[in-house]
From TrEMBL:
<dbReference type="InterPro" id="IPR004869">
    <property type="entry name" value="MMPL_dom"/>
</dbReference>
<keyword id="KW-1133">Transmembrane helix</keyword>
<keyword id="KW-1003">Cell membrane</keyword>
<feature type="domain" description="SSD">
    <location>
        <begin position="233"/>
        <end position="328"/>
    </location>
</feature>
<feature type="transmembrane region" description="Helical">
    <location>
        <begin position="167"/>
        <end position="190"/>
    </location>
</feature>
<comment type="similarity">
    <text>Belongs to the resistance-nodulation-cell division (RND) (TC 2.A.6) family. MmpL subfamily.</text>
</comment>
<feature type="domain" description="SSD">
    <location>
        <begin position="553"/>
        <end position="681"/>
    </location>
</feature>
<feature type="transmembrane region" description="Helical">
    <location>
        <begin position="12"/>
        <end position="31"/>
    </location>
</feature>
<feature type="transmembrane region" description="Helical">
    <location>
        <begin position="197"/>
        <end position="219"/>
    </location>
</feature>
<feature type="transmembrane region" description="Helical">
    <location>
        <begin position="274"/>
        <end position="297"/>
    </location>
</feature>
<dbReference type="Pfam" id="PF03176">
    <property type="entry name" value="MMPL"/>
</dbReference>
<feature type="transmembrane region" description="Helical">
    <location>
        <begin position="619"/>
        <end position="640"/>
    </location>
</feature>
<dbReference type="InterPro" id="IPR000731">
    <property type="entry name" value="SSD"/>
</dbReference>
<feature type="transmembrane region" description="Helical">
    <location>
        <begin position="303"/>
        <end position="328"/>
    </location>
</feature>
<feature type="transmembrane region" description="Helical">
    <location>
        <begin position="231"/>
        <end position="253"/>
    </location>
</feature>
<feature type="transmembrane region" description="Helical">
    <location>
        <begin position="586"/>
        <end position="607"/>
    </location>
</feature>
<keyword id="KW-0812">Transmembrane</keyword>
């Protein structure tokens, strides 16, 4: 947006830009509702290729004609299963076998030893993919509801997957609607205008539509994998970050309308002032997210590009479509509080922040010492965080059918029934491996897989041999998604790996969880330092200094640790969650640090601009006074949009939404409003070391220029 243009030419350019984007929006719009068509939620496919569970899964393909995911239909009557119950379960079993996607014939119902339950194992063809949800719904329809004291539930891996698919199916509708409503309400409060809210909301919607097109085709062509979690985060991230960028640009535009008569001239100046900070902010988030490509988990590698595409699309739209809309809206867009070309100091519109800046100037050192100490105190809550693999009963915020069924299985059967650990070993060592496995604590039973298709296993049936390998099934005593089951898997692996000549490999549902947790720990240790280094480089280039980036990163890391400490207390004592998933710390770090540093970028880029004109300490106070309101509004918007994740009844997304909301509010209210300005004011010009700006006069009225 450079050069002098007449009002007519400027208006024509703005009209053409808006019309061009509206055409793009018309083409891209439908894709936002089609992302669910290319999403996958198969956790096993996200494991690294060298994981033991992945190797076991590859070997399993040779032992079955078609790979399957089991659904477990359980019938329970506390007073004891009756003959009528047995007849009902047997009739249901026949009908289950006739459902498209079920691999029949099915074995008869398995009674529990206490006589209070029956269990039917229904293998569903893995080729069904996302359609497994439809198959499970048909099974639930056949089984019917509870009747005359007999409860019926469909659980097992297939039941769990169906419930997850149903949850993620809500992303296209309810989550998007809640996000839009949240952003709309906050914009109305911030702008107190019946018109202005429409501009950032239109631009954010356009950003989401543009991102959806790219994500759809990348996922459709297997360039990336899209899962429900990434889809949900994409929605709130685009609307949250997009509204943030819009607030920053609109605030700067309002400022310049006081200095320029024509909206085009005001927008040119505003764009030049705000664009570097917005681009640096977006680049920080994009590069941080792309660091997830270093992950060994395909699910993490999927989230990085998906979210990065969303931010890239948002940057393009907010720096082109939104400015054109604002130019066309002119001063009328701000009605009834239209800014006049009166050369007013923008700080006069931010009285409360001018007073906060004055307080920081008078008490700089005590302010940053007290705020840093308060954040450090919150980090003590980390002892309550409890990183674990969430069990099935802890995965949802409500009680789903698969959760209820798993509880029935745990009451009446070895809890690992239906989801056994699988052991693959060389044929000559199979008996020794079975003996050793049977002796592992937490293993209830071990049996070889034979060539039988259905019916109860024959005691002396020979094991099936494929390429010299034998498959054993180890039924665990604990539920397959419990800590006890994971300990059993680790002990089982140690035991069977010691058998000479066995070349044993342990897999199965629980093993997938174990390997996923290990990969998450590895990713956290690798990716976090890389993200910090990348952000440091971007900050150094933007601020042309080395000391300021180090201090800014230190404050954001302190804020991140304080957020985790505070959230640990909230999760445990408010929500009564059992802990956080192993992937949570990494996701929370990437989003909190990448997004949290945004507000420091917005603040310090303006502080540097003002420092060149006024001197460092005066620049700190001017930057805080001018940006305080808009950055706080942006933080509230982002916190509120991520809070929208709470509408999904999935604990891991609720925890992530709460963590980002709490962390962003800490960043905007404490770190950016008090800690960073007070620390910068106390240090003075040295904050810009080693640039020339650090060598200007060291008083409250320093003035100078920096290269």
């Amino acid at each position: 947006m450079a050069g002098r243009r007449g009002p007519g030419a400027a208006t024509l350019i703005a009209v053409l830009v808006v019309l061009g984007w509206l055409v793009v929006g018309g083409i891209a719009g439908p894709y936002s509702g089609k992302l669910g068509e290319v999403a996958t939620n198969d956790n096993a496919s996200f494991l690294p290729a060298d994981a033991e569970a992945t190797r076991a899964q590859d070997l399993a393909g040779g032992f079955v004609e078609r790979e399957s995911t089991p659904a477990l239909v359980v019938y329970e009557r506390g007073s004891g299963i009756t003959d009528a119950d047995k007849q009902r379960a047997a009739a249901d079993t026949v009908r289950f076998g006739q459902v498209a996607g079920v691999l029949g014939p099915l074995p008869p119902p398995i009674p529990s030893q206490d006589g209070q339950a029956l269990q039917v194992v229904v293998p569903i063809d893995e080729a069904e993919g996302e359609a497994i949800g439809r198959v499970v719904e048909e099974l639930r329809g056949i089984a019917g509801g509870d009747r005359d004291g007999l409860t019926v539930d469909v659980a097992g891996p297939a039941g769990l997957l169906a419930d997850l698919i149903e949850v993620f199916g809500a992303i296209d509708g309810p989550l998007l609607l809640v996000t839009l409503v949240v952003v709309l309400v906050i914009l109305l409060i911030v702008y107190r205008s019946p018109v202005l809210w429409l501009f950032p909301l239109l631009a954010a919607g356009m950003s989401y539509a543009l991102a959806a097109v790219f994500v759809y085709y990348l996922a459709k062509n297997d360039v990336i994998k899209l899962n429900g979690q990434a889809q949900g985060i994409l929605t709130v991230l685009v609307f949250g970050a997009g509204t943030d960028y819009a607030l920053l640009l609109i605030a700067r535009y309002r400022e310049e309308l006081h200095r320029h008569e024509r909206p085009w001239d005001a927008m040119k100046t505003a764009w030049r002032g705000a664009a570097p900070a917005i681009i640096a902010s977006g680049a920080t988030v994009i590069v941080s997210l792309l660091c997830l490509l270093l992950s060994s988990l395909n699910s993490n590698r999927a989230l990085g590009p998906v979210a990065a595409v969303g931010i890239a699309a948002t940057l393009v739209v907010m720096l082109t479509f939104l400015p054109a809309l604002l130019v066309l809206g002119g001063r009328w867009a701000f009605w009834p509080r239209r800014p006049r070309a009166d050369q007013a100091d923008p700080r006069t519109e931010n009285g409360i922040w001018s007073r906060i800046a004055g307080f920081v100037a008078r008490r700089a050192r005590p302010v940053w010492l007290v705020t840093a100490a308060a954040l450090a105190l919150l980090t003590l809550g980390l002892t309550q965080l409890g990183v674990t693999t969430l069990g099935q009963s802890d995965l949802f915020t409500n009680r789903t059918d698969s959760v209820a069924g798993q509880e029935v299985i745990a009451r009446h059967y070895p809890a690992g029934t239906g989801s056994p650990a699988t052991i693959f070993t060389n044929q000559q060592a199979a008996q020794e491996v079975a003996r050793v496995a049977q002796g592992v604590r937490g293993v209830a039973a071990v049996r070889p897989v034979t060539g039988e298709r259905a019916g109860p296993p024959q005691e002396n049936a020979p094991p099936k041999v494929v390429d010299g390998k034998v498959q054993l099934e180890a039924t665990l005593s604990d539920p397959p998604d419990s800590d006890g089951a994971e300990r059993a898997i680790r002990d089982l692996r140690v035991a069977v790996h010691r058998v000479a000549g066995a070349d044993a490999v342990v897999g199965g549902f629980t093993a997938i969880n174990v390997d996923t947790s290990a990969a998450s720990t590895r990713d956290r240790n690798v990716i976090i330092p890389v993200v910090l280094l990348v952000i440091a480089v971007i900050l150094a280039l933007l601020l042309r200094a080395l000391l300021a980036p180090v201090l800014l990163i230190a404050t954001v890391v302190l804020s991140f640790l304080a957020t985790l400490g505070l959230c640990a207390l909230i999760f445990r004592y408010v929500f009564d969650f059992p802990g956080v998933d192993a992937s949570f710390p990494l996701f929370a770090f990437v989003f909190l640090v990448a997004l949290g540093i945004d507000y420091n970028i917005f603040l310090m880029s303006r502080v540097r601009e003002e420092s060149i004109k006024r001197g460092t300490r005066a620049g700190v106070l001017a930057g805080l006074a001018v940006t305080g309101g808009v950055i706080t509004s942006a933080g509230i918007v982002l916190a509120a949009t991520f809070s929208a994740l709470a509408v999904l009844p999935l604990v891991v997304l609720v925890e992530l939404g709460v963590a980002v909301a709490v962390g962003v509010l800490l960043d905007t209210i404490v770190v950016r409003s008090l800690l960073v300005p007070a620390l910068s004011y106390d240090i003075g010009p040295k904050i810009w070391w080693p640039s020339r700006l650090a060598r200007t006069a060291r008083t409250g009225t320093e003035a100078g220029h920096a290269g």
